[in-house]
Amino acid sequence: MLTIARHELTQILRNRAVLVSGLVIPFAVSASLVWRHETFENIGSLGYLASTIVLTIAAFSLYSTVVTTLASRRQNLFLKRLRSTAARDHEILWGLVLPATAIAGVQLLGILAVLAAVAGSPDNSLLFAAGTLATIAMMLGLGLATAGLTHSPEHAQVTTLPISLGTIAVGVWVGITGTENLATVKRLLPGGAATELMTDAWNGGASVVDSLVLLAPTLAWVFLALFLAQRLFQWEPRR
Amino acid sequence: MSTSPVIDVADLNLTYGGFHAVKDVSFQVQRGELYALLGTNGAGKTSTLEIIEGHRRPSSGAARVFGHDPRKRSAVRPKVGIMLQESGFSPDLTVKESVALIGALTLREDRVERVLGIVDLNRKAATLVSQLSGGEKRRLDFATAAWGSPELVFLDEPTTGLDISSRDDLWTAVDKLREDGSTVVLTTHYLEEAQQRADRVGLMHRGTMHREGTVAELTRQLPGVIRFTLPPTAPHPPVKGSRRDDGTYVIETFTLARDLKELLQWAEGHHIDLQGLSAGPTRLDDVFRALDTDD
Fold it and tell me: What are the residue boundaries of the ABC-2 type transporter transmembrane domain, all occurrences included (chain A) (predicted)?
């Protein structure tokens, strides 16, 4: 797995399009959010800003990159090539998504550390980390599922839009309006419960038990996404 | 050494989308053999090969490789090298990186310099795959298949896109693999390669294993051909044949050597020049052409 991951990282770093869309743009957007943190505090809260950063990185650095990468590797038969070796399917998949996941993780750590330094630390770091990890797992699972419906890297520019923009939109909606109204709907949408959990964990005030319950919808999305991925994922281009 | 077949295919069937691509195909490949799986386009040989390689699940029947289900990659693949029909390398990796990656994943030991040396690609080691020609990509593909001298090598159209010199070099490398004990399964559209190299041939047609045997066994079923042209005033030759409008005689015979000898003696005795004389045993090409008439 690590051999595949090392070579995958090399490929990502050599591909300018992936580098810009998957790394530079999400990082620049997140950095600008941190720069304007007072504006976001006025609109919602610092926790809302932090959860928006997590969703932005997870949607673009991770989800879109994973879909684009897998579609590209399938299209040029690199997946079939890897399956011609002794490597098992889960080793191949983990090897291919690990670099994008690690890059997203490093980006998040860096940006959130800067946010904490300039605007104040989260009230409950562990809960915030749990919300972040659940979000990453959800976007990873959705990435595998979406890759099954994506024929090429160009097609990924279309197929990734509903989930990447939809998840961020849900995060903005929950972050600004809270969950006093339509709580069930907001929590069941992808990213809704995670946003509430991360916002509360950063701002403080919610009980740990109530916050942990909010992990359930996100984990349900993880299982649903993995179930769909198992059904939809293709190793070779359709004939 | 084990005498059990390296590959054992029994009653294999593959159906997809209502199309019966492989129908009750059975054959075995013995250790050390070069087995050529040949067929017309759409004959089902690629589907059959993909099942044996472990890339596809059969609809029914079974394929065993070294006694295992070929989809159990961890059990089978350390002994198997696969040269795919299409390249499947990442354009953003170098030649050296590509070989090192695939080689490491085979779980066999070898050196990048050695396998690139087999296909004369060491000078391209630092070149990105995207900058290789089609022929160089085929050679890179062979290099990955030859990594660690596997016990079984699949060569799917190995010489397509190669110039004659590269083709000869590749066959020299295949011969070396066989000397080291590798079993080879070959598919190719260059029938003369199969004719020269294969120990046995499986001839697929419309999803079935139409014929199987050595080249001699397959070609024995069709007559050899003698062709020549006679001057209009010449008497009829002693061997029965047909004369075409352009004056060319075509003699189809199962006793080629005897008939040719008789014909040459007759021509010499009558001081007749057999213009454009050609004589040859049946080739695999002729067996292929006969497929449609067999239907």
Answer: 44-226
